[in-house]
Design a protein that fits this description.
The protein is built from 1 helix and 11 strands, in the order αβββββββββββ. The chain is an alpha+beta fold and 150 residues long. The longest helix has 35 residues.
């Protein structure tokens, strides 16, 4: 019985140690993504009648990617995680913040349950909302303009 108790105690210790290392790995990975996230990549390219839609980063001025353009695909996800189509490395942007998707030959904006909300032309987005040329989307402190390229 004493041996079984010692084995159980050793398993608990190693299990706790494994959980501790896993937690530390999550903290380091999150910190790395926050620091080196930046703005990257272009969404998948898809031609539409009358020209394709794109996002143009407009501000604020301290955002290093000002003027950068992203062509909108069937679905374009915006957020802080590197797996998104448009990555914005800012603390007020959620991991998966918002999505723009194409439906019925139009583009729609949807907030993905972000902490700080998604805004379209200064108004909060609470349900999928149709996008138009020159609309301004705000995620965190970054403004993205919707533009049709002819």
């Amino acid at each position: 019985m004493k041996v079984a108790g010692e084995i159980a105690l050793a398993l608990l210790r190693y299990g706790f140690l494994a959980l501790l290392y896993y937690f530390l790995w999550l903290v380091v990975r999150t910190a790395y993504r926050d620091v080196f996230g930046g703005v990257r990549g272009a969404a998948r390219k898809r031609e539409l009648p009358g020209g394709e839609m794109r996002l143009v980063i407009e501000g604020p001025e301290e955002v290093p990617a000002n003027g950068r353009q992203f062509v909108l695909g069937e679905q374009t996800v915006i957020g802080r995680w590197r797996s998104n189509d448009v990555v914005i490395g800012e603390e007020y942007v959620s991991g998966r913040h918002a999505a723009i998707y194409r439906r019925d030959n139009a583009y729609w904006l949807e907030d993905l349950g972000s902490t700080n909300g998604t805004y379209l032309n200064g108004r909060p987005v609470h349900r999928p909302t149709r996008l138009s040329d020159n609309d301004r989307i705000t995620v965190g402190g970054v403004v993205l303009r919707v533009a049709r390229r002819m």
